[in-house]
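Entry:
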Amino acid sequence: MAKKTKKKAKKTTRQRATRTGEKMGPPLPQRQTQPGKEYVMRPRPESPAREYLAAGKLRDQVALITGGDSGIGRAVAAAFAKEGADIAIVFRSNRRDAEETRHLVREQKRLCLLIQGDVGDSRFCKDAVRRTADEFGRLNILVNNAAEQHRVDEFEEISDEQLEQTFRTNIFGYFYLTREALPHLGSNGRVINTTSVTAYAGNPKLIDYASTKGAIVAFTRSLALALAPRGIRVNAVAPGPIWTPLIPATFPEEEVAGFGENTPMGRPGQPDEVAPCYVFLASDDSSYMSGQVLHPNGGRIVNG
């Protein structure tokens, strides 16, 4: 009997270490090209929602998730699937990561549609929503999550091309997809936008990126007011430093190695630690919330 109790205690400790990120250890020095690949990261992010305990909160609903192939988007897709949702994933180029995410969704006996394209193109966004509605017969939840960022040392280094590309991906796509999704969402539809701690704290090396994330906060609050009469809720999540492919694809190796150390918790967050925020905002647990932003950021206190 004593031996059995000891094994149970050991399992509990291991689960606690996973939730707090101790298991992963610090990121290793590494560099990738944009947009980044999760399957080559060292160590791999914790994004399969393996330890997430579901309660059927999204049973038989349909969610369209942009940037759903890896990182936060993958964790959200996996958690939504555990809660009973079918998933459409929009990804730009990394089919291998997208296929891995589809496998996670299918493990939960849910359907998963992969849609490849550029959310900065309004025609593609229209087609992505149409394909989702045609495949599943409905659309209940839109998660605007796709993003890109490009680090520069001096503000003058931001070219016209980079500025336009960052805004097209990070905020134009949110407008395009939401506009196309609205006729399908109906009453009790939900829109969840991914902003960032940089919208509140700023970042001297990511000025164009931080600007788009600030725009997403304003977009979320304004759209929430506009859509409340229709019964559609609009909220956002503002992650802090989360270990995703965007990080080694943006920063030099020495910065990647120290990523997240400047948070009060002293480490980067994992996608699995962020996904429950999206489940909460997508479910009826948040039925009296709209125009709000959740802040999973490692303990940093920000306004808003």
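DSSP finds nine helices and seven strands in the chain.
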